[in-house]
Amino acid sequence: MYQTRIVYFVVYLAVESSLLAQPGLPRSEDEFKAASKEAKRELVVKIIRHTDDLAPEELAAVLRASLADPDRAFREGALAAISARTIGPLLVRGTSIRQDWNRDRAALQPLRPRVEDLLRKDTEESIRADAVSTFASFDYDPSAPQTGINAVTVRILLERYYADSSPRVKAKIVTGLSVVPGPVTESVGVVLKDAIAFPDRRVRFAALHGMAKLGSDGRILLFSALRDSDRSVRIQAAILVDQRADLRPEDLPAIESGLEREEDAQARAALERAAIRIRTRR
Prior knowledge:
This protein folds into 3 domains: 1-147, no CATH class; 151-213, Leucine-rich Repeat Variant (Alpha Horseshoe); 218-282, Leucine-rich Repeat Variant (Alpha Horseshoe).
């Protein structure tokens, strides 16, 4: 969710301009607003790569300015940079990354309302979608026994699922809700059931991992996804069926029915493995 977006943004900036060393990169909100595009790009990339020398207050100030930049690329960059710092220990193992997290966390937390504003109000679909994962990243704590998002974040994501018409944004929200540790609330379960039947394949695909949290209902919905009209959804459903440790003999008819219809080799291989495991346990 986070890693691909951050890597993409770094590559995008590197290709778009030659990042020549700037003698005075911005260190405050006002300096960032007045800086050239080249200086802004270089600084954002340094923040993502953890190679900047900003104090925590300076880091928060320039990211605050970048979040409000009229240029979509810098709003996108700010979201990627915040995620790179808020979940740094999850992305890259190392003492220095953990030290950055410990040092910067308190200064970055006040940016959460700014990110929520982008999630709610930005006119660019891609920014709202990126804001989903960045908003959730503020809850990450590497010292916690379970990594997940808190109840307030879940409530806001549920609200945005219904309020935002973009399937891309909905898919990102469903991805986040699908990995919430522990049992899901009734309201999250309702969203996951809605998502698995959503017209856009991206939303259905995102919902597949959440089916494991819905008990017997999720089991039925996962097996139903083997009949989905979209190939990628069927493949992922087959893989998740194969990965289930609780396959039962009564699941065999649904698997065999899927094999009769399925032409994709990857999906068929997963279903065949699942069928063999059930037959050998009898």
